[in-house]
Amino acid sequence: MTKKTDSSCIRVFVADDHAIIREGIAKIIHETPDLVLAGQADSGHTVMERVKNEEWDVLILDLSLPGGGEATLQKCKQHRPDMPVIIFSMHPEDQYAIQLLREGAAAYLTKGRPISEIVSAIREVSKGKKYITNELAMQLLEHKPTTQAHDVLTPREKQIFFLILDGKQPSEIVKDLHLSPSTVSTHIQHIKKKLNANSIVELVKYAYRSGLID
């Protein structure tokens, strides 16, 4: 069957720094008749360069993307406020989903979701709607307050914190976020202070205790 490429197809752009993830989503898109792959990127910088000159119906955005998934979301919404953005993340819904939906994301999916749900989310948000998973719906119904220490981190501190949890070294964070070494160092010191940690190892231990990683 020949893939449709006309205006009836939903144009999906995929941004993730892991090629295997991009290729997996691209395969899903190619195998779904009403979807078409509009392009791929491996950094927030590339996303912003492309979005200025291209038209997409849906952006799938990795939260841990170099350049910052959250920062890229905010920039995209400034440039293209009506474009739906699906946050694709390894972190569970109860950590960042509600916050990112409030910041303009149309959906928040963890990377373990079934293929069928990814397709459903793309179709739903392309209509201008939010896509809420069952887990997130339960969380919203419970109105469970967040009381964990990392909730007090600023958006930039959270971004750097999760890059650290992804195994990034400070020198890599400097390059990914286009910040000076002193700025990154200052943010890391603030993160340690707020999370009562004396080292990167203790930050990782905090993340395990808090269920941010397993």
Compute the number of helices.
Answer: 10
Nearest-angstrom radius of gyration?
18 Å
- Main sheet properties: 5 strands, parallel
The SS-based structural class is alpha/beta
Which strand order does the major sheet show?
2-1-3-4-5
Number of discrete domains = 2
Shape: globular
* N-to-C SSE string, H for helix and E for strand: EHEHEHEHEHHHHHH
What's the CATH topology name of the largest domain?
Rossmann fold
Mean pLDDT, as a whole number? 87
- In terms of DSSP E residues, the strand content is 5-15%
In short:
This protein has helices at residues 19-30, 44-51, 69-79, 93-102, 115-126, 134-142, 155-165, 170-177, 181-194, 200-209, and strands at residues 10-15, 35-41, 58-62, 85-89, 107-110. The chain has 214 residues and is an alpha/beta fold.
Distinctive features:
214 residues; Rossmann fold; five-stranded parallel sheet; 5 strands; 13% strand; globular
Which helices and strands, and how do they pair?
Elements: E1 10-15, H1 19-30, E2 35-41, H2 44-51, E3 58-62, H3 69-79, E4 85-89, H4 93-102, E5 107-110, H5 115-126, H6 134-142, H7 155-165, H8 170-177, H9 181-194, H10 200-209
Parallel strand pairs: 1-2, 1-3, 3-4, 4-5
Helix pairs in contact: 2-3, 4-6, 7-9
